[in-house]
Write a structure and sequence with these properties.
296 residues, alpha/beta, Rossmann fold, 2 domains, eight-stranded mixed beta sheet, 40% helix, globular, disordered N terminus
Amino acid sequence: MNTPQSNHIPQEAFDWYDEYAHGLMDRRTFMKKLGGLAALGFSMSVLTSALLPNYAFAEQVSFNDDDIKATYEEFDSPNGHGKGKGYLAVPSKIEGKLPVVLVIHENRGLNPYIKDVARRLAKKGFIAFAPDALFALGGYPGNDDEGRAMQKTMDRAKIQNDFVAAAHFLKSHSNSNGKLGAVGFCFGGYIVNYLAAVESDLLSAGVPFYGTPASESLHKNIKAPLMIQLGELDKRVNATWPDYEKSLKANNVEYIMHMYEGANHGFHNDSTGRYDEQKAELAWQRTLAFFNEKLS
């Protein structure tokens, strides 16, 4: 998806998309700004195809892959929305107990990219579960704009509690070895940081991709080792890192941070022009190695 056209799109277009995707700019303003670039010779079709997700590109592991089995599972969430639901991907052949990994979506619900990430983990021998924060409203609606609008209307505290409940649900899976990892992207990166901070013994390892930290008052609870994945051009999230790092050091948290040169927010998401295949693959291999080390 990192096409020649997307490589030549000015950086400000990616910055505008980040603001739009995170509610800092409305769609009309976003499209108007893109129109200004179109007046400079950039095709609107090239701009929108590079910036807006195309989930036809986001399948690295087929849902029909013989090595995995995928189902939808519900779980209780008494402190959240009562019930939750997610996408469970497990290896087809399970021998003994396996590490389990919670996969946490962006601020728009359980889209095809996140389900594929769960399948990638199952393909590598993990039991992966990707909850849908939008389940209480009927689930991911099939497009990101509507999903983003839906998630914005929901009670954030209840969503957080749903993910805590999902973490406990997955950790208690009959084939779990009792060690839970979590990987999340954008909003999901924040939730990884939150899960590490809200209960000291919940996670055994966390990998937040371009996620902001939980409230500083919770940092003293963090015991799980963290691998922080950041894109160099992601000014909004990166601005939170210096203070977060100071807090992690002050609380003696084991962590490693990787900064990916020239990478945008969302560089791991292979459905948009922000995707950087080389850096995404490096980040993913580091993630798998981290989970293999910490969850075995």
